What we know:
It comes from Taylorella asinigenitalis (strain MCE3). The chain is mostly helical and 279 residues long.
Amino acid sequence: MDKSNHLDFRIVVPEALRDHYNLNQQELEEYTSSSSTSSKPSNEIKIDQVRELENFFTLSPSLGKTKVVILGPVEALNQASSNSLLKILEEPLGDTIFLLFTHAIQKVIPTILSRCQRLPLPIPNMELSTEWLISKGVKNPKELLSMASGAPLKALELNESSYQPVQYWVSDFVKDLNSGSLINYDVYVEKLESIPNNQWIASLQALLTDLILTKQGLNPRFFDSLRDEIGSIATKSNIHRLVYLWDYLIDRQKLARHPLNPKLFIHSCLQRVFLSLNK
């Protein structure tokens, strides 16, 4: 498999996540379905990707007794591809092993779950994760683990990313929110256009979580390095407005994959956050 020539292996992931899973171009051609003709990689596993496995199923194993398919995250399946996968799972082939992975099992449809054996892989404890990150040269492991909800691989990814949320934009945005002065939204629109909508909305949701926790006298969970600014904003905020804003961001997350106008989508969302916290 290291040489990208294994005949009994296929991997199915969304186009947008192929770089995330470190699939090089040769592996893309060898192991995955054909590339999309669209300019922007999809965050979904499409039905064509699942259907392209049919030819693979007709082949006998070449180097052993079984073939292997890795597919995920399962929550990235859309309705059509979910139905296509379900048909495959309803009539399993004896010489093929399916390894399905998910980061949000609650989003996987029950009919798929009922046909799988579960193997939970829990997040390591904070002490073990911190030691591992330090061994990788990470200087602020606890802060990154907080932003990554305790997931060490995600924390390492944030450490190596040019788009680490606090450094890239959240710190400046929080300062603007705390000042209460009008924000130059164009600066943030230009920055946030460079990352997927679901990521920067998730950062806003994390920030709002910290505001609500602080408002209730608890410690921030995600952005502890911004504790002072978050505390100041929370003191001036209305808890009911924070709750309404929470519902709003959930709705924005649902629209994250298909906004009609990306620039307007970012601008309106940030403006809504500002107005909710400064009225």
